[in-house]
Amino acid sequence: MNSSVNSSLNPLTAIGAIDGRYRAKTEALAPIFSEYGLIRFRVQVECEWFAALAALSGVAELPPLSAAAGKAVRAVHADFSVTDAERVKALEATTNHDVKAVEYFVKERIGRIEELAPHTEFVHFACTSEDINNLAHALMLKAAREALEPQMRRLIEAIDGLARQAGDLPMLARTHGQPASPTTLAKELRVFSARLSKSLKAISALPLTGKLNGAVGNFNAHTAAYPNIDWPAVSKGFVTGLGLAHNPLTTQIEPHDDVATLFHAFMRFNTVLLDLTRDIWAYIAIDYFGQRQVAGETGSSTMPHKVNPIDFENAEGNLGIANALLGHMAEKLPVSRWQRDLSDSTVLRNMGAALAHSSIAYQSADKGLAKLSINRARIEADLANNWEVLAEAVQTLMRKHGLAEPYERLKAATRGRRLDAEGFAELLDALDLPDDARRELAQLQPHTYVGLAAQLARLPD
Q1: Is the pLDDT assigned to residue 300 strictly greater than 50?
Q2: Rounded CA gap, 410 and 213, in Å?
Q3: What is the DSSP-derived secondary structure letter of residue 184?
Q4: Cβ–Cβ under 8 Å, residues 26 and 356
Q5: Which of 168, 128, 152, 143 is closest to 40 using CA atoms?
Q6: Torsion sign (Cα): 200, 201, 204, 210
Q7: Which one-letter DSSP state was computed for residue 29?
Q8: How far apart are CA 125 and CA 106, in angstroms?
Q9: Close Cβ partners of 451 (under 8 Å, ≥ 6 residues apart)
Q10: What is the DSSP string of 45-61?
């Protein structure tokens, strides 16, 4: 190992892929989920709580903020910089407590505001660290969701765009990997975009919950200092003012139930996308889709002819990692011994990793979809070579006409066989059908036997 390599953060020296190889794809999440991001959100909560206390008429010792003071307090978090975060980390080196370091930093900054210098002890007033942390984490997730939703919508739009390109193109379905009753390519794509759209709507609608109620959730310190203030109402107003839902009944920690629900919702979206990536990969393998070549790109280090479905494979791998992390967090975070244990703290620091891997997958799948071209000739040829898939229709129409043992007769004539148009005509002749049934069945062709697929493909999500 070359010990002279600079170990400061660099995409080439990062331990994790999301900060290394994929840094360009995760850049938007860095200000949210990094250590800097967590500290910034904590500072925001501390500053806003100080301002909220100043607005309470029952806290006589802390005068209302002038317009200038209010602007200055909010500038502490609005203008928060990496240099500011470094100051917090320097304080943490002494406190050995990350939230206490944030408190001291905010006190330093508010202490510089002349009219507020005597009142800095109202920073972090009656708060436990978890009052700050749970709100900071909820704000992080709120910001992350807002960053990811456009990526997820673009992915859905890309699938729908491919479906529109396909039009009413009939396609051989494959159940159990075997030729099955025909469908249309657009309808099969729309199944996925509708599923993803439903999952995205669920993600968007989920509340992100917070609490601010003291050391064990009872407002003990609050009421000791100011017994006449309606602290539950103040807490609710403060939390909802941050754009979060309020949880009035907690232990020391907000129990993370809504966080777990959100992560499960992301897992469902990711699972549907995983299903799509594997299907597209398989369709590429049987030549239903071609992939547009990218100038200068290499498919194989030894086989020059190859154009590999790398974007879908990348998406699949990242979705697996994302769901493993999301699943663990969804199971672990709602569990805390008695009124609080610290086992959630390190787990919560991996929220960014889980959603970053999700983001990488969304971008990779979107990139892969943009490269696809529909191989109409190959799809049509597959239909033309598999007339045996009409056996379903034949036995069903035989039932309609009251003919004996239609399923059994078609099974004996077609199971495991491949038919072309001529073979299908011979099959009909061998069934000794009534003339009206024979004429009706003779009209069948694989490319028209698609049921209502075209209409279904046009249904709204």
Answers
A1: no
A2: 71
A3: E
A4: yes
A5: 143
A6: negative
A7: G
A8: 12
A9: 181, 183
A10: HHHHHHHHHHT-TT-TT
Mean pLDDT value of segment 170-192: 96
Q: For residue 10, what pLDDT is reported?
A: 81
CA angle 346, 350, 351 (to 5 degrees): 120
Rounded to whole angstroms, the Cα distance separating 103 from 39 reads 11
3-state helix, strand, coil in the chain (%, to 5): 65, 5, 30
CA 91 to chain centroid, in Å, comes to 35
Among candidate residues 3, 4, 176, 305, the one labeled active-site is 176
Is 176 an annotated catalytic residue? Answer: yes
Distance CA 312, CA 92 (A): 43
Contact yes or no for 160/266 (Cβ under 8 A): no
Q: What is the pLDDT of residue 4?
A: 45
Place of tokens 């754009």: 243
Q: Among the options 300, 343, 345, 373, which is catalytic? A: 300
Rg over alpha carbons for the chain, rounded to the nearest Å, is 31
243 close to 322: Cβ distance less than 8 angstroms = no
pLDDT of residue 119 exceeding 70: yes
pTM of the model: 0.92
Number of H helices and E strands in the chain, helices first, is 20, 6
Q: 324-327 long-range contacts, Cβ below 8 Å, gap at least 24?
A: 325/350, 325/353, 325/354, 325/357, 326/263, 326/264, 326/266, 326/267, 326/270, 326/354, 326/358, 327/263, 327/267
Show the CA angle centred on residue 293, arms to residues 290 and 295, nearest 5°. Answer: 180
Q: Which residues neighbour 341 within 8 Å (Cβ) at sequence distance 6 or greater?
A: none
Q: What is the largest CA-CA distance in the chain?
A: 102
